[in-house]
Amino acid sequence: MDCWTNKIGEITFANRPSAYDKFMTDVKKLYGDLQPIFGLEDTRGFGRNFASYLLGHKYTVKHVNPAYTDAMRNSSPISKKDDSYDAFFVAKILRDMLDTLPDESHDDLFWTIRQLVKRRDSLVQGIIIAKNQLNAQLTYVYPSYKEYFCDVDTKTAMYFWETYPHPKHLKGTQPEGLLQELRQVHRGMTEKKVQDILRLSEVNSPKEKDYQDERDLVIRSLVRELKFRKQENEDIVRKLERQVQLTGYKLHTMPGINLITAASIISEIGNIERFPNSDKLAQFSGVAPVNFSSAGKGKD
Questions:
Q1: Of 16, 226, 262, 285, which Cα lies nearest the Cα of 116?
Q2: Does residue 108 register a pLDDT over 90?
Q3: Hey, how many other C-beta atoms are within 10 angstroms of the C-beta on 224?
Q4: How far apart are CA 117 and CA 70, in angstroms?
Q5: What are the angstrom distances between the C-alpha of 274 and each of 101, 153, 186, 217, 278?
Q6: Which of the two residues, 182 and 150, has the higher pLDDT score?
Q7: Exposed, middle or buried: residue 114 (CB in 10 Å: 0-12, 13-18, 19+)?
Q8: Alpha-carbon dihedral 37, 41, 43, 47, rounded to 10 degrees
Q9: pTM tops 0.90, yes or no
Q10: pLDDT tens digits for range 176-218
């Protein structure tokens, strides 16, 4: 599109690096000696590689907020949705808001932090789901399980559930033997705790049911899933700690902000230098008051 909203041409190409050179050749056929400016709607996801390519070739790339295109699409007399229609609106917004749209600038450090935070969020959600499912399963086989361990996902607790998913596996187990076994996982295990486990398991737990092996498999599978996700989460946190240090930000020195909170904030804000002042940052984060009024009446 030119500055008078005349459509110069339309090019469809595969979103992979091997197709970018051919795309630029086709663009030059349309523009000749003019230097095009690009507007991309998705520069944090599928459009990231393409934006990096354009920036690497010294082209001006603007980030077009999807909210702008959605608002323009909804304001049209006839609303429709396809790639060509979307491209038209992106180009029109680029023309109308060229001076106010943010320049796209890729910083791999902040992008990596964002990916790590998203991955950790996914792992934590999975841990919560698996833990809830394990609690539900233990209610059937160990009704007094909350008196065994403070948390069902400690190392000692998970070892016990995986080794003894049903009280039938405790038959013939002596307190001294179980104490020695559990102390290999947690040295603080006491003889009284072991005696309580064996006593409560014998008194309160149900007898072996049909398909018990399959029921045991469910508990063991949940324990293995928890162990895997918790280990992955620890690895992510270690990487996050290093990446946050590289940013030079000191958010974690503020009371109430730990590493995870700091990383989450950084993943959303990115490079703070892209905001000319604190008002712009407040507006970006959605905490700046906005006035809604008509005829002099309204509210913030």
A1: 262
A2: no
A3: 13
A4: 27
A5: 12, 42, 50, 52, 11
A6: 182
A7: middle
A8: -90
A9: no
A10: 999 999 999 999 999 999 999 999 988 877 788 889 899 999 9
8 Å CB contact between 117 and 240: yes
> CA–CA separation, 245 vs 69, rounded Å?
37
Task: Report H helices in 142-211.
Answer: 155-163, 175-183, 191-204
| Banded pLDDT at 267 (limits 50, 70, 90) | very high
Alpha-helical (H) ranges within the chain are: 20-31, 48-56, 66-75, 83-96, 108-141, 155-163, 175-183, 191-204, 212-247, 259-269, 278-285
Whole-Å CA distances, 238 to 44, 125, 263: 24, 19, 12
Can you say whether the dihedral through the CA atoms of 160, 166, 169, 175 is positive or negative? positive
Tell me which residue of 133, 132, 136, 193 sits closest to 160, measured CA to CA.
193
* Residue 60: exposure state from Cβ atoms within 10 A (0-12, 13-18, ≥19): middle
Q: Which residues pair with 299 in a beta bridge?
A: 292
For the stretch 21-72, pLDDT in tens is: 999 999 999 988 888 999 998 877 788 899 999 999 999 999 898 889 888 8
Among left, alpha and beta (phi > 0; psi -120 to 50; other), residue 238 is: alpha
Residue 226 burial (CB count, 10 A): 22
Which residues touch 134 (CB under 8 Å, ≥6 apart)?
A: 152, 153, 161, 219, 222, 223, 226
